[in-house]
Design a protein that fits this description.
This protein is of the alpha+beta class.
Length: 217
């Protein structure tokens, strides 16, 4: 796979079950797992419990004292490897078996997220591979974005192990990310889009809601 430079305007994608949106808009924030473990059950959890627990103890080299699970995670692309696992529903560490249709993508602009985090004095970093693995490299300088495997990020064929690792690169924001930075919500179907519209009908900030079948398997 040939290398390619980073996009001039990278987008970030956070995936959640559609029934989580009501609590997200009510709090006006996306919160990290370290915060959410102390909250009441506010919707369907789609991640893997064992990996979520491990992420609570995986430190970031560029942000001493900050663990992966203390950050809101984003991918650099829709149609992630994680979404594929949710779609297949046969991974032994998954308790969620509801498929990909109820999963929505929350899209944000990376530069706007960085600007907001720095104003709020919250740390951020990005990884070159899966931040839930036992080994990954992280960076917190935008000049290092070219170290991400952007060809792997954009590919739809990630059967090769190295490509799969690169596609799972993450962007991490300490503790929280505000709802008003969500610019677009992508869904697989009209039915899920209607659920999204119902969840956000009474809030001031209403991102664009689009059916994006190419973001799904």
């Amino acid at each position: 796979m040939t290398t390619q430079p980073p996009p001039t305007n990278p987008k970030l994608y956070h995936i959640v079950h559609v029934d989580k949106l009501a609590s997200i808009v009510a709090s006006d924030r996306l919160y990290c797992d370290a915060v959410m473990v102390n909250q009441p059950d506010l919707g369907t959890t789609i991640g893997m419990g064992r990996i979520k627990e491990r992420r609570l103890h995986l430190g970031l080299q560029t942000c001493p004292g900050l663990n992966v699970g203390e950050c809101v995670p984003f991918y650099f692309c829709p149609r992630s490897v994680m979404l594929y696992l949710l779609h297949k529903g046969n991974h032994p560490d998954l308790t969620y078996r509801g498929g990909q249709s109820p999963i929505v993508h929350l899209e944000m602009d990376m530069h706007r997220v960085v600007d907001w985090a720095e104003r709020e004095r919250l740390r951020w970093a990005f990884t070159l591979s899966n931040a839930g693995s036992n080994y990954f490299e992280d960076r917190n300088d935008l000049a290092d974005l070219n170290q991400i495997n952007w060809a792997a990020i954009s590919t739809t064929d990630w059967r090769d192990g190295a490509i799969k690792d690169g596609k799972q690169a993450e962007f991490l924001v300490e503790r929280e990310s505000p709802w008003n930075l969500v610019e677009r919500i992508g869904t697989e179907s009209q039915a899920t889009a209607q659920r999204v519209l119902a969840a956000i009908q009474d809030v001031q900030h209403k991102p664009l809601v689009e059916i994006k079948t190419d973001w799904y398997y």
